């Protein structure tokens, strides 16, 4: 049976959701909460976006390339404003 979780628990699960050992019941409770709470849903989208940027940044640094171009920084600023 699904249980309704609070926002604090939802944010904790959002941070742990990359962990493949997150129990099915917890994933289902998180799914339910995200369909009810627009604030946690937005937080979820923002954390995914930040994680994507972090991976891209790590990949760029691993390739020993230069820092982000000004165009890339501007695109990131625009996406942050649009997501906010």
Give an account of the 3D structure.
The chain is an all-alpha fold and about 80 residues long. The protein has one domain (about 5-84). The protein is built from four helices and no strands. The protein has helices at about 5-15, 25-35, 40-60, 70-84. Helix 1 (about 5-15) packs across helix 2. The chain is elongated. The chain starts with 6 loop residues before the first helix and ends with a helix. The mean pLDDT is about 85. This is Zinc-finger domain-containing protein. It comes from Hymenobacter cyanobacteriorum.
Could you provide a short overview of the structure?
This protein has about 80 residues and is an all-alpha fold.
Domains (count): 1
Q: What is the radius of gyration? A: 16 Å
Strand count = 0
Task: Give the % helix.
Answer: over 70%
Protein name: Zinc-finger domain-containing protein
Task: List the topology elements.
Elements: H1 7-16, H2 24-36, H3 38-62, H4 70-83
Helix pairs in contact: 1-2, 1-3, 2-3
Organism: Hymenobacter cyanobacteriorum
Protein name: Zinc-finger domain-containing protein
Descriptive terms for the model:
single chain; 84 residues; mainly alpha
């Amino acid at each position: 049976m699904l249980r309704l979780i609070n926002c604090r628990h939802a944010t904790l699960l959002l941070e742990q959701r990359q962990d493949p050992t997150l129990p099915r019941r917890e994933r289902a409770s998180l799914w339910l909460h995200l369909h009810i709470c627009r604030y946690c849903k937005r937080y979820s989208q923002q954390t995914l976006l930040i994680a994507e940027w972090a991976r891209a940044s790590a990949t760029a640094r691993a390739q020993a390339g230069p820092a982000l171009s000004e165009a890339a920084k501007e695109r990131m600023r625009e996406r942050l404003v649009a997501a906010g």
